[in-house]
Amino acid sequence: MSADDATATSDLVLDITGQPKMTLRPGGRPQRQGFRGQEASIPVILTNSGTAPAEQIELSGTVPTAGR
């Protein structure tokens, strides 16, 4: 900006931040069938397609209710 012979300048600073975007999808077939009272492995793939690192990720699940 200027007025007569006075001039002022300013530096412009941009702070661009990103955001993680997590996607969870099946990673293949279970290694074996699950039976009541036994553990079964289900592979999954967790992907971050966002523009920032995803930190301190925790996965949890619940067992299905009986009769399903």
Gist?
The chain has 68 residues and is mostly beta strands. Helices cover 0% and strands 21% of the residues. The relative contact order is 0.26.
Outline the structure in words.
It is a single chain. The protein is mainly β. The chain is built from no helices and 4 strands. It has strands at about 1-5, 5, 20-25, 45-50. A two-stranded antiparallel ribbon has the order 1-2. A hairpin with a 2-residue loop joins β1 and β2. The model has no long low-confidence stretch (mean pLDDT about 80).
Structural class: mainly beta
Q: How far apart lie the N and C ends?
A: 70 Å
Summarize the biggest pleated sheet.
2 strands, antiparallel
Write down the overall mean pLDDT: 82
Describe the secondary-structure layout.
Blueprint: E1 2-3, E2 6-7, E3 22-26, E4 44-48
Antiparallel strand pairs: 1-2, 3-4
List keywords for this structure.
21% strand; two-stranded antiparallel sheet
